[in-house]
């Protein structure tokens, strides 16, 4: 089974998010970048499926050379090879077209992404890749089972879950529960240095959207404390002041 | 040039998110002085469809086809894209629900349309350009996104826009789309819905607990409080990682992002990743025995105290208030 895992390079989850250039650009100063946590789940699942010679895992990232460290980490976790499309991601349509082009040329059985990236929260790329390749896509999978070319996916729906079946090839966006994140071991880290990382130039694709500006949430007022012995007071505040009950 | 809105149903009934997207799309339609057309796929009764008129739809396209009785992502996307074209719509609105998240990008790709996923407010429309506010960095920030494509798709965050009843009844028309058999590549085998539970992303009140509860056996007090409030239950990441609660309850940057009217956090210290998931809640109440817990800094109301003492008392006080 040939598996393609799409990874994105995002700020570490502990990062404080600030902006520069009059709130038009993300301030990367002092920010540590990591593999998008959901993509790490996708990668861990791919490595698990390929274990024991059952398949190969290729990771793909659309980014400039600054993402190489994150790609090497993915190789250390267990991907066999990596591809970087040498372009700063512009919008989901641009990124998905680059990935779809590569996937078309290399005929993968399974394409995994994270359910969404934790920076732009688009949750678009996987489904667009599916559309461009005219293969099914599942956006928020909680459980993935593959036997031969039969795929069973459990996906989240409001207040429950839906179990669906499909056949390979398919695109699946993974959420928590699909696989335990794999921690790279020393051998993985050593071998990651010599695994192939191909850099390809992007196709020319028009963009459909762009971010004009950013803002951070308005701070809340000071907390009103209520004594533990006076919970009735909290009930009245929620009713009379906050008007939420 | 009308606006098209896709409305999701569950077992033939429209959900709250359906009324939210219709109300939202109606405001846009009024703003640019055009009509709002809704499209529904599945087995929904005529009066339920006509009822969308109350929220501002003037016409409802009804796709009722045996093959489409349950959700097929690719087929639904093709049909909605076809409806956008046949109605000449330049704007499509749908909910950024779990199914909506899977549908919207495929529809947008078919139409080469820009997609504002997780829109939080009404858009600003200026000629061919549309800008709208959406979440970014998992709720640690907001971005104003500009869609420059000819057709534009907006996926509205659940709970972000209040439903508005404007009165009226919609004309229901049968819409018979081209059915492409190659779109039927997935099959729903089973749907499991906990009917007695309130869906977390759509809940107006959320009661959430963390490691301060000490173990899964202690969740009874959380569930009782949630019951009294008609709230959904949620938890922090360490709790779902430890298997005390299912991942579907994990609220935070890498879990579910919620924006309820009231979020009650019990025994959760307030790590930055958790706060990201709840920062757009309208009112936040924190109950924690550690007065230094970072969560108090972003709370509206707080009680410094032991959850095992405070929570049952709060449940009692709410019962008394509600006369239960």
UniProtKB/TrEMBL annotation, chain B:
- Give start and end of each Electron transfer flavoprotein alpha/beta-subunit N-terminal domain: 3-188
Protein name as catalogued:
Electron transfer flavoprotein alpha subunit apoprotein
Q: Where does FAD bind?
A: 211, 267-274, 288
Gene Ontology process terms (BP):
fatty acid beta-oxidation using acyl-CoA dehydrogenase
- Note accompanying the cofactor annotation: Binds 1 FAD per dimer.
Q: Which organism is this protein's natural source? A: Sphingobacterium siyangense
* Source species, domain of life: Bacteria
Q: Does the keyword Electron transport apply?
A: yes
List the InterPro entries.
DHS-like_NAD/FAD-binding_dom (IPR029035), ETF_a/b_N (IPR014730), ETF_a/FixB (IPR001308), ETF_asu_C (IPR014731), Rossmann-like_a/b/a_fold (IPR014729)
Cofactors named for this entry: FAD
Cite the entry's keywords alphabetically: Electron transport, FAD, Flavoprotein, Transport
């Amino acid at each position: 089974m040939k598996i393609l895992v799409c990874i994105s390079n995002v700020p570490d989850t502990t990062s404080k998010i600030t902006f520069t250039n009059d709130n038009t650009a993300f301030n990367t100063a002092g920010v540590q970048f990591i593999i998008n946590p959901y993509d790490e789940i996708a990668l861990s699942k791919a490595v698990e499926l390929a274990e024991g010679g059952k398949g190969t895992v290729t990771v793909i990232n659309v980014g400039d050379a600054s993402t190489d460290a994150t790609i090497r980490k993915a190789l250390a976790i267990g991907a066999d090879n990596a591809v970087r499309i040498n372009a700063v991601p512009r919008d989901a349509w641009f990124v998905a077209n680059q990935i779809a082009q590569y996937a078309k040329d290399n005929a993968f059985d399974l394409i995994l992404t994270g359910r969404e990236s934790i920076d732009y929260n688009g949750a678009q790329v996987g489904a667009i890749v599916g559309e461009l390749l005219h293969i099914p896509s599942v956006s928020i999978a909680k459980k993935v089972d593959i036997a031969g070319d039969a795929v069973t996916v459990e996906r989240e729906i409001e207040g429950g879950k839906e179990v669906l079946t499909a056949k390979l090839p398919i695109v699946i966006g993974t959420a928590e529960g699909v696989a335990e994140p794999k921690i790279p071991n020393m051998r993985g880290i050593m071998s990651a240095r010599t695994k192939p990382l191909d850099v390809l130039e992007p196709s020319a694709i028009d963009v459909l959207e762009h971010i004009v500006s950013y803002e951070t949430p308005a701070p809340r007022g000071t907390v009103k404390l209520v004594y533990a012995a006076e919970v009735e007071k909290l009930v009245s505040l929620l009713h009379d002041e906050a008007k939420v009950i | 040039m009308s606006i098209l809105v896709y409305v999701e149903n569950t077992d033939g009934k429209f959900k709250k998110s359906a009324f939210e997207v219709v109300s939202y799309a109606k405001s846009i339609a009024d703003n640019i002085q055009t009509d709002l057309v809704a499209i529904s796929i599945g087995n929904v009764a005529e009066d339920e469809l006509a009822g969308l008129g109350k929220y501002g739809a003037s016409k409802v396209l009804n796709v009722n086809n045996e093959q489409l009785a349950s959700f097929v992502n690719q087929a639904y996307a093709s049909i909605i894209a076809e409806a956008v074209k046949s109605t000449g719509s330049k704007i499509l609105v749908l909910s950024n629900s779990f199914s909506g998240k899977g549908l919207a990008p495929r529809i947008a790709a078919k139409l080469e349309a820009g997609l504002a996923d997780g829109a939080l407010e009404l858009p600003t429309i200026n000629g061919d350009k549309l800008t709208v506010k959406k979440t970014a960095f998992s709720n640690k920030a907001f971005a104003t996104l500009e869609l420059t494509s000819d057709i534009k798709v907006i996926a509205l965050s659940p709970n972000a826009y209040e439903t508005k009843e404007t009165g009226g009844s919609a004309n229901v028309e049968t819409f018979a789309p081209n059915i492409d058999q190659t779109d039927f590549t997935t099959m729903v085998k089973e749907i499991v819905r906990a009917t007695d539970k309130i869906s977390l992303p759509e809940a107006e009140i959320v009661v959430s607990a963390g490691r301060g509860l000490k173990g899964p056996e202690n969740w009874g007090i959380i569930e009782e409080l949630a019951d009294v409030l008609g709230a959904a239950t949620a938890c922090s990441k360490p709790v779902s990682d430890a298997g005390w609660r299912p991942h579907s309850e994990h609220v935070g940057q890498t879990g579910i992002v919620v924006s309820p009217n009231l979020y009650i956090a019990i025994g959760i210290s307030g790590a930055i990743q958790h706060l990201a998931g709840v920062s757009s809640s309208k009112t936040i109440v924190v109950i924690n025995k550690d007065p230094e817990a970072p969560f108090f800094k972003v709370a509206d109301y707080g009680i410094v105290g032991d959850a095992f003492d405070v929570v049952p008392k709060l449940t009692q006080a709410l019962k008394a208030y509600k006369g239960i």
